[in-house]
């Protein structure tokens, strides 16, 4: 084969490769969100739950919110409060407190009732179904049935997209987290994903304010959770990583004052966390 023929063959191969590569890049762009540009998505998800077995009156809650550099990440106007069985006229705002910015939830009356999830089983153990009933409607005959207590839930949440990548390895130093974060103790709890070698768990405390009136026998639970996530995709490959921060409180009877919520911070979960 002469040199001219070799040159023509080489040029043909180059052109063919360029066509294939161009078509592949076009396909990536056509997949929407999986091309090179705009392939990352970072956000925070803030959720909370108030669970009560009985009605609460004159309710005021100050709850920790994600804060970075002294500024609250969320806007109270975007917080939604939902319930399945209860009723309350919630007022939601961000307030400055001696402990920093917090989410204030107030209501004159928060309806609460203890329900039961009643599951029915056949004689051979097959699950036949379930129903949710108030305490005074529990079946008289509980043969082949099991009942699980279920309080009235109020759930509040807000989704916050961000431009910068969320630090999931050391979020206390490099991301927005529920603050104040006090009494941090590393490796004092089990990782969220025990099989993830990069995952870790740290316990902490964070303050909140709780005031309401109820019966001495009533027990209510308060939970606040923050998730910081990064998601990405290239072509048909994608991944994510995240941190999760939870703070909880169990409350018996009426409340009035500042409280310490127990928390756990799960970090370094997912792909490419180091």
Task: Give a brief description.
Helices cover 12% and strands 57% of the residues. With 274 residues, it is mostly beta strands.
Radius of gyration: 26 Å
Structural class: mainly beta
Proportion of residues in helical segments:
10-25%
Give the number of domains.
Answer: 3
Strand fraction equals over 45%
Report on this structure.
This protein is mainly beta. The chain has three domains: 1-30; 40-112 and 153-270, no CATH class; 117-146, no CATH class. Helices cover 12% and strands 57% of the residues. It has helices at 3-30, 171-174, and strands spanning 40-52, 54-68, 71-72, 80-83, 91-97, 100-113, 115-121, 127-134, 145-150, 152-162, 177-179, 182-186, 200-213, 219-234, 237-252, 255-270. The strands form two sheets. Strands 1, 2, 3, 4, 5, 6, 10, 11, 12, 13, 14, 15 and 16 form a 13-stranded antiparallel β-sheet that branches. Strands 8-7-9 form a three-stranded antiparallel β-sheet, with no helix packed on it. A hairpin with a 2-residue loop joins strand 2 (54-68) and strand 3. The longest helix has 28 residues, at 3-30. The radius of gyration is 26 Å and the shape is globular. The N and C termini lie far apart (53 Å). Residues 1-37 have low confidence and may be disordered.
Observed structural traits:
single chain; 274 residues; mainly beta; 3 domains; 13-stranded antiparallel beta sheet; three-stranded antiparallel beta sheet; 12% helix; disordered N terminus
Topology, element by element:
Elements lengths: L2 H28 L9 E13 L1 E15 L2 E2 L7 E4 L7 E7 L2 E14 L1 E7 L5 E8 L10 E6 L1 E11 L8 H4 L2 E3 L2 E5 L13 E14 L5 E16 L2 E16 L2 E16 L4
Antiparallel strand pairs: 1-10, 1-14, 2-3, 2-6, 2-11, 2-13, 4-10, 5-6, 7-8, 7-9, 12-13, 13-16, 14-15, 15-16
């Amino acid at each position: 084969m002469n040199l001219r023929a070799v040159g023509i063959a080489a040029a043909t191969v180059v052109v063919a490769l360029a066509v294939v590569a161009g078509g592949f890049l076009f396909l990536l762009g056509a997949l929407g969100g999986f091309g090179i540009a705009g392939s990352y998505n970072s956000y925070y998800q803030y959720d909370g739950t108030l669970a009560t077995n009985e009605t609460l009156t004159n309710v005021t809650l100050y709850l920790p919110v994600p804060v970075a550099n002294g500024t609250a990440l969320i806007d109270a106007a975007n917080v939604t409060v939902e319930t399945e069985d209860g009723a309350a006229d919630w007022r939601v705002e961000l307030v400055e407190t001696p402990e920093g910015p917090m989410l204030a939830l107030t209501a004159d009356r928060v309806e609460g009732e203890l329900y039961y999830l009643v599951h029915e089983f056949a004689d051979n153990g097959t699950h036949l179904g379930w129903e949710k009933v108030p305490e005074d409607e529990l079946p008289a005959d509980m043969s082949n049935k099991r009942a699980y207590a279920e309080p009235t839930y109020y759930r509040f949440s807000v989704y916050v997209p961000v431009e910068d990548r969320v630090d999931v390895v050391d979020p206390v130093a490099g991301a927005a987290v529920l603050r104040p974060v006090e009494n941090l103790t590393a490796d004092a709890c089990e990782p969220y994903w025990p099989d993830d070698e990069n995952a870790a768990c740290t316990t902490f405390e964070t303050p909140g304010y709780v005031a309401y009136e109820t019966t001495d026998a009533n027990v209510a639970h308060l939970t606040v959770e923050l998730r910081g996530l990064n998601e990405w995709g290239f072509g048909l490959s994608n991944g994510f990583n995240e941190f999760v921060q939870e703070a909880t409180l169990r409350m018996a009877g009426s409340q009035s004052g500042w409280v310490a919520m127990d928390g756990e911070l799960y970090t370094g979960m997912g792909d490419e966390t180091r």
